[in-house]
Amino acid sequence: MPDDSAGDEDAASTSGSAEPLPTATEEKPEAKTDGEGYVGDNSEHKEEYPDPDDDIGGISTPPDDEEMPLADHIEEMVLRLAVVFLFGAAGTAIGILWASEGISFIWSDVVPQATERPPHLYSPLELWLTRIKLSALLGIMIALPMLIYQCYLFMRPGLYPNERKYYLAAVPTSVVLGGLGMIFSYIVVLPILFSYFTFYSEGSAEIAYALGETFNLVITLTGFLAIVFQIPLFIMLAIMLGVTTRRWLAQKRLYFWTAFAGLSFMFTMDPTFMAPIFVAITMILLFEGTLLIVKWTGRE
């Protein structure tokens, strides 16, 4: 007679080794995805992204560029501006020592027949304020190169090598152009303007130039023409960096002429309109002369 116990043991072992069937109440585990269509373990399909500092397709970050906290940037900027302020303050202090001699020298060069037309004071502090203004102009002249250099040091980590080359070339060029603008104002513009003012008023009134108002005009024109003489540099840099083209500037010249006239009448206004007209003509000549030079060099 066959052994039923052995059959029962085999059935029991078979039923014990079989996996239980999922019931209706059991939930299947959700499939994992990384958002790119991969299902399964994310580590197997993790996409490697390149380092942003690596050269990708010919586009790379500046070699010295590094991330810094905003507070560190602000601290560095304040320290560099403090250096510029110290240079300007030192130039102003030196200027005050010889301000009186400077006033006499400029007056004799600018005002026609200066010995017959001495400066007149119409307020108690007019002489001192004029000395301070003239000394401040000297301080600005001394601080300007340092300001440009400190700006370069601040921006240097974020500049590409070609941009550094352009900036370093622009620094001395800017200083030279600013100096030329001041010299042009002192030698050409101011003598012509004051000769016209004298001729315009002669015969109808006794001429008595006020010291403060006269030097306000001298300082304003000198400083403004120092900025105006930066026009060639701005145009050349914009074309070299690919911001614009000579052809586009030539096509929009009437807009630039209008802007030049507006700026001239805004910053160098006088009742005779001679100063703004003279400055506007100077700006237009610088603009057109730069375009001619660019065309001659073959840059379009």
Automatic annotation (TrEMBL):
It is a multi-pass membrane protein. Residues 1-11 have a biased composition (Acidic residues). It is found in: Cell membrane; Membrane. Pfam families: TatC. One of its GO terms (cellular component) is TAT protein transport complex. Residues 1-67 are annotated as: Disordered. GO terms for biological process: intracellular protein transmembrane transport; protein transport by the Tat complex. Coiled coil: none annotated. The chain crosses the membrane at residues 78-99, 134-154, 166-197, 217-242, 254-269, 275-294. The keyword Mitochondrion does not apply. InterPro entries: TatC. It comes from the Archaea. Its main location: membrane. One of its GO terms (molecular function) is proton motive force dependent protein transmembrane transporter activity. Residues 25-35 have a biased composition (Basic and acidic residues). Keywords: Cell membrane, Membrane, Protein transport, Translocation, Transmembrane, Transmembrane helix, Transport. Belongs to the TatC family. HAMAP family: TatC (MF_00902). Part of the twin-arginine translocation (Tat) system that transports large folded proteins containing a characteristic twin-arginine motif in their signal peptide across membranes. Forms a complex with TatA. PANTHER family: SEC-INDEPENDENT PROTEIN TRANSLOCASE PROTEIN TATC, SEC-INDEPENDENT PROTEIN TRANSLOCASE PROTEIN TATC, CHLOROPLASTIC-RELATED. This is Sec-independent protein translocase protein TatC.
